TrEMBL record:
<dbReference type="Pfam" id="PF00246">
    <property type="entry name" value="Peptidase_M14"/>
</dbReference>
<dbReference type="GO" id="GO:0006508">
    <property type="term" value="P:proteolysis"/>
</dbReference>
<dbReference type="GO" id="GO:0004181">
    <property type="term" value="F:metallocarboxypeptidase activity"/>
</dbReference>
<protein>
    <recommendedName>
        <fullName>Peptidase M14 domain-containing protein</fullName>
    </recommendedName>
</protein>
<dbReference type="Pfam" id="PF18027">
    <property type="entry name" value="Pepdidase_M14_N"/>
</dbReference>
<comment type="similarity">
    <text>Belongs to the peptidase M14 family.</text>
</comment>
<dbReference type="InterPro" id="IPR040626">
    <property type="entry name" value="Pepdidase_M14_N"/>
</dbReference>
<feature type="active site" description="Proton donor/acceptor">
    <location>
        <position position="334"/>
    </location>
</feature>
<feature type="domain" description="Peptidase M14">
    <location>
        <begin position="112"/>
        <end position="369"/>
    </location>
</feature>
<dbReference type="GO" id="GO:0008270">
    <property type="term" value="F:zinc ion binding"/>
</dbReference>
<dbReference type="InterPro" id="IPR000834">
    <property type="entry name" value="Peptidase_M14"/>
</dbReference>
<dbReference type="InterPro" id="IPR050821">
    <property type="entry name" value="Cytosolic_carboxypeptidase"/>
</dbReference>
Length: 370
């Protein structure tokens, strides 16, 4: 039977180079209009009963090639369960891995995908829940809606938003977990948080990049998390409409949800280096971080990014912009493409289920500190 490799579907990304027996050589396609690439998602049919050797030949030129060592791709035969492949190697700029195919069709991905169809299912389900208001804040360059779900009636304004970088699909799994918790009538933590705050959740800031199979950019090849100082309709309407909605409500707390290619752990990045930084304001962020580490084994504080020096924060990034613009306690949550090494799972690695569990813990701590 002839092997067929295909990525012509929602969030698909791969280019077939050659098939030689059981060996498949591939390249990852660049984000349109940019040099970024690392996300891949493709299916293989016609290989049942064979052990395939797959090679990503251009892995060395990827945006974060230093993240490949120790990384293992995800594989699925039902598109619901995405364990890691048994192992992989990264040598001379090539990522190689093998897999014994037991079904007629099998899918491979950089991380468990979160399709735009699942996104719309999520919007339909949560928008119908009691106490939820749905708003279309604007539209992407491809004309897709930027959805926002509002819940709660308290005075504190909380914004949680995800997938500025579309290939970081764990971010929308986190958002699904957060929305499910917030709309659970039997969850006392959610009830307390809804009384203290009004929460605005944007599950996907970059639907165009998500559907196109991009790693980091929108339809124009623009990194949305470098547009928050001066977004435009031509380059970054997604940021423009979300920031405009934030201007209308104000922002007291903000969580920007992401994924990190290299660091095998969950961590937070703050807003050190903004012009208006004070130790007292920063302590509110550090307190949240410490409480989260104490609340769940799915979070830690030892690993993370370097802090920006005084006055050197990049205000084009949302976390810094919102802290400076609104005086918000603002943070970037990073989850791994690898695993959370302080509490590892050798089969699943970091997973959709654990992304959702971390969301629950983040909300619990938020309810404690607001």
């Amino acid at each position: 039977m002839t092997i067929d490799v295909n990525a012509a579907f929602d969030s698909g990304n791969i280019e077939l180079v050659a098939i030689d027996g059981d060996r498949i050589d591939l390249n990852i396609r660049r984000d349109a209009g940019s040099d970024f690439y690392q996300w891949f998602h493709f299916r293989v049919a016609g290989a049942k009963g064979r052990t395939l050797s797959l090679r990503l030949l251009n892995a060395g030129g990827a945006a974060y090639a230093f993240g490949w060592p120790g990384y293992r791709p995800r594989v699925s035969s039902d598109r619901a369960h995405w364990p890691m492949v048994a192992g992989s190697t990264y040598q001379a700029g090539v990522l190689s891995f093998s897999h014994r195919v037991e079904h007629d069709v099998v899918w491979f991905a950089y991380f468990a995908p979160y399709s735009m169809e699942r996104h719309h299912d999520l919007i339909a389900r949560i928008a119908a829940a009691p106490g939820v208001t749905h708003r279309t804040l604007g539209h992407s360059l491809d004309g897709q809606p930027i959805d926002c779900l509002d819940v709660g009636s308290g005075g504190k304004q909380v914004w949680i938003y995800a997938r500025q970088h579309p290939g970081e699909s764990m971010a929308e799994w986190f958002m699904e977990g957060a929305l499910e918790a917030l709309t659970d009538a039997n969850d006392p933590v959610a009830g307390a948080l809804r009384e203290k705050a009004t929460l605005h959740l944007v599950p996907n800031m970059n639907p165009d990049g998500s559907r196109r199979g991009h790693l980091r950019t929108n339809a124009a090849g623009v990194n949305l998390n470098r547009e928050w100082h001066a977004p435009t309709l031509e380059r970054s309407p997604e940021v423009l409409c979300v920031r405009g909605a934030m201007d209308a409500t104000g922002v007291d707390w903000a969580i920007d949800v992401h994924g990190d290619e290299a660091i095998p752990a969950n961590f937070l990045a703050g807003y050190e280096g903004i012009p208006s930084w004070t130790d007292a304001h920063g302590e509110r962020f550090y307190d949240y971080q410490r409480r989260l580490a104490a609340a769940t084994p799915l979070f830690q504080t030892r690993l993370g990014y370097d802090k920006a020096p005084a006055g050197r924060a990049n205000l084009s990034m949302s976390t810094n912009q919102l802290a400076e613009r609104f005086g918000a306690v603002s943070m970037t949550l990073e989850m791994p493409f690898k695993d959370h090494d302080p509490s590892p799972d050798p089969v699943e690695g970091w997973s959709p289920a654990r992304s959702k569990a971390l969301a629950h813990a983040c909300l619990q701590v938020l309810a404690d500190v607001i």
